[in-house]
Amino acid sequence: MIELINKEVEVKTPDIIYRGVLVEVGANDVHLRSESGWIVVPMDKIVGIKAVEE
């Protein structure tokens, strides 16, 4: 995941897909910067992270 920092990503959880720039990957959560503000997704809810293909 470290290679995706500062890139546009999609973070998939069982309920929703978040899209934004990956800013930080911590032990407990992932931080994204999106058009609407900051998003913090708990690591235990994430089922996948992938780069957005433009």
Q: How would you describe what is shown here?
A:
The protein has no helices and 5 strands. It is mostly beta strands. Strand 3 (29-34) and strand 4 form a beta hairpin. The protein is globular. The model has no long low-confidence stretch (mean pLDDT 95).
Overall spatial form: globular
Mean pLDDT: 95
Q: How can the largest sheet be summarized?
A: 5 strands, antiparallel
Q: Strand percentage, roughly? A: over 45%
Task: State the helical fraction.
Answer: under 10%
User: How many DSSP-defined strands?
Assistant: 5
* Rg, alpha carbons: 10 Å
Structure described in brief:
With 54 residues, the protein is mostly beta strands.
Key features?
54 residues, mainly beta, 0% helix, 5-stranded antiparallel beta sheet, single chain, globular
Which SSEs are present, and which pair or pack?
Elements (H helix, E strand, L loop, with lengths): L7 E5 L4 E9 L3 E6 L2 E6 L5 E4 L3
Antiparallel strand pairs: 1-2, 1-5, 2-3, 3-4
